Amino acid sequence: xxxxxxxxxxxxxxxxxxxxxxxxxxxxxxxxxxxxxxxxxxxxxxxxxxxxxxxxxxxxxxxxxxxxxxxxxxxxxxxxxxxxxxxxxxxxxxxxxxxxxxxxxxxxxxxxxxxxxxxxxxxxxxxxxxxxxxxxxxxxxxxxxxxxxxxxxxxxxxxxxxxxxxxxxxxxxxxxxxxxxxxxxxxxxxxxxxxxxxxxxxxxxxxxxxxxxxxxxxxxxxxxxxxxxxxxxxxxxxxxxxxxxxxxxxxxxxxxxxxxxxxxxxxxxxxx
Amino acid sequence: xxxxxxxxxxxxxxxxxxxxxxxxxxxxxxxxxxxxxxxxxxxxxxxxxxxxxxxxxxxxxxxxxxxxxxxxxxxxxxxxxxxxxxxxxxxxxxxxxxxxxxxxxxxxxxxxxxxxxxxxxxxxxxxxxxxxxxxxxxxxxxxxxxxxxxxxxxxxxxxxxxxxxxxxxxxxxxxxxxxxxxxxxxxxxxxxxxxxxxxxxxxxxxxxxxxxxxxxxxxxxxxxxxxxxxxxxxxxxxxxxxxxxxxxxxxxxx
Lengths: 272, 254
Ligand SMILES: Nc1ncnc2c1ncn2[C@@H]1O[C@H](COP(=O)(O)OP(=O)(O)OP(=O)(O)O)[C@@H](O)[C@H]1O
Ligand SMILES: [Mg+2]
Fold this sequence. Notes:
- The structure holds two protein chains of two kinds.
- By secondary structure, chain A is mainly α.
- Chain A is built from ten helices and no strands.
- Chain A has helices spanning 22-49, 60-69, 71-105, 107-122, 125-136, 140-164, 168-176, 181-218, 224-233, 237-265.
- The longest helix of chain A has 38 residues, at 181-218.
- Chain B has helices spanning 46-53, 93-97, 99-104, 108-118, 137-149, 167-184, 195-201, 235-253, and strands at residues 4-15, 18-30, 35-39, 61-66, 69-70, 79-81, 155-159, 187-192, 204-208, 215-220.
- In chain B, the strands form two sheets. Chain B has a six-stranded mixed beta sheet with strand order 6-7-8-3-9-10, with helices on both faces. Chain B has a four-stranded antiparallel beta sheet with strand order 2-1-4-5, with helices on one face.
- The two termini of chain B are 35 Å apart.
- Chain A binds chain B through residues 1-2, 4-5, 8-13, 167, 169-170, 172-179, 183, 187-188, 191, 267-268, 271-272, and chain B through 51, 54-56, 75-76, 80, 82-84, 86, 88-90, 92, 99-100, 102-104, 125-127, 129-131, 133-136, 151.
- The site of adenosine-5'-triphosphate (ATP) has 12 residues of chain B, from strand 1 and helix 1.
């Protein structure tokens, strides 16, 4: 927003989050909702018309019924998945941010480690995960590490990019004031890096739940990954669909939480 | 003894076309309390000169002296208002204004009180807690200028403080600066493209040649103070303006 405000204001101005009226809401969400409902109806109709067996493709109504009946079990597995997701993501956030700041500070370190980082991302996690289980046993640790490995790369890269992308003129101003490295970091560069860091966090949080499910698949006693593996062995395709639904719901919830946090912390973004 | 002295400063940058001499043995003196304007064509090296005085760049040769002390390459010696306002978008006007005190580890609470007391003089009454995104172009420049004043250095460098503004706002701010000037008691070096601005504000004017910058003309503006914008119709003003225009036009031709 760039318009001038003509009257003086006495409180810290905060741009109000744009609230959608029901009319704009209808315009915004009406078409996709209509499309989804039509597709579900089509799916339901075709499964009924061709009498598709439930183990091959369950109908939406059957999936809905399964969702309701298996809610208690699902809740347990979801909590198990979260106890892998949250520590793994937190570990990635702390390590990724720390490494990002360190690599930004030292060009030598950056040249040495950056290529290794990129290479580490090209190794398929499916190959590493079983090795982690062999190395660390069937406890929480290998699964947390899988999530951390998957999610920490976008955080490192975006931290470095954000720190280096601070406005040149603002930087020179602080330097002219005589600011040292730490003051520059604290007063300018960390703040300026926040939007980019949040971009990294949003990518990371999107990967984190899928990462946890994958890790559980490979070796665990509880969690959505375990639930999916068991359901597949039992030809309960409806349960697989339900687990997939919960997985993406969980991801959307976490993503939304991060977005809200971003609005609160990066309050100046979009003000201009 | 001049309070700010530039002694035979040279600077060469490497450009895609090879080495590029930007400042060629440039010397200037500014006396304590004096208001000196520097006019030069775009790209002649004015901002480079300021960066050298502020210690952001090192000259290849020459020295910067303040009160006779060599401060070449040392930062934090002068207050600097950069060409773009460089206000930090996450800080309020007051927080931006006291930034230098924060960096220097001074008494921030006292600086905030001082900033509050000056808001009215700077046309920012009631805007102290607003963030820069809400300010108009002219208000942003005044906020940046307030930050420069609260830097608490006897020497201020102003790099085209009104350059990005429309003609009317610029005239208003020049008028405002004239009124404020007598109370501030600072030494000022001002870069501008605007001949009228230089004559109205300055005690003395240096005109630079196109790159590499040398001094094409040094001109004393012997108009009485306090000055006001009505000066532009004064015959003495017209004479000075013609003189400056002639030099700048000659420069353009080569
Ligand atoms: N760090 C740098 N590296 C290379 N070239 C530079 C650097 N800084 C400035 N220059 C060049 O030096 C010349 C002078 O630049 P400078 O910004 O000092 O000019 P100026 O007189 O302030 O121009 P303007 O009136 O447009 O602000 C320009 O050609 C610019 O491209
Ligand atoms: Mg410039």
